[in-house]
Amino acid sequence: MAYIIETCSSCGNQVNMSVAQTFWKGRVDTHASYFCGKCGNLTEIDWMNDEPEQKIKRAILAQDGVWSLEIRNQDKNRVLIIRTLKAELNLGMDKIKNILQNFDNLKLNGTHAEMEKMAYVFSKCGVMTYIERIQ
Ligand SMILES: [Zn+2]
């Protein structure tokens, strides 16, 4: 669980918002909530299978570390890997070109849950991956 300082949406008091991200059944869900001791406001925000705000993601990375996913046995699965990355990460052509240039040393970075999701997606199509904490 990570925490960030937020402003209560109803009274403006400073509150501690707790943030958590999970990988579950093929989805990355992010949950944030805070309770304001001054006015009693309870706020919960969910990002279901959706990218949270940058500050939320930064808090998760700071708490749980930055993780990388290395893609193994690439050569015979080249087309499959590119197709999967494109579909899952919504990549444009510039990013795809970048990936193709670094294809022999292909790594993704992100939160632990995001990398677990990508490992899951790749395992479904028979591509081996390896996850490790890099920061
Ligand atoms: Zn409040």
Question: What would your notes on this structure say?
Answer:
The chain has 135 residues and is of the alpha+beta class. The chain has two domains: 2-64, N-terminal domain of TfIIb (Single Sheet), CATH 2.20.25; 67-133, Ribosomal Protein L30, Chain: A. It has helices spanning 54-64, 78-89, 93-101, 112-124, and strands spanning 2-7, 14-24, 27-35, 42-48, 67-71, 107-110, 129-133. The protein is elongated and about 60 Å long. The site of zinc ion has 8 residues, from loops.
Instruction: Write down the oligomeric state.
Output: single chain
Q: Which fold does the CATH topology of the largest domain refer to?
A: Ribosomal Protein L30, Chain: A
**CA radius of gyration:** 18 Å
Task: Let me know the number of strands.
Answer: 7
Tell me the fraction of residues in β-strands, as a range.
25-35%
SS summary, helix count = 4
**Which outline best applies?**
elongated
Q: Which strand order do you get reading across the main beta sheet?
A: 1-2-3-4
Content-based structural category? alpha+beta
How many domains?
A: 2
CATH class term of the largest domain: Alpha Beta
Ligand types: zinc ion
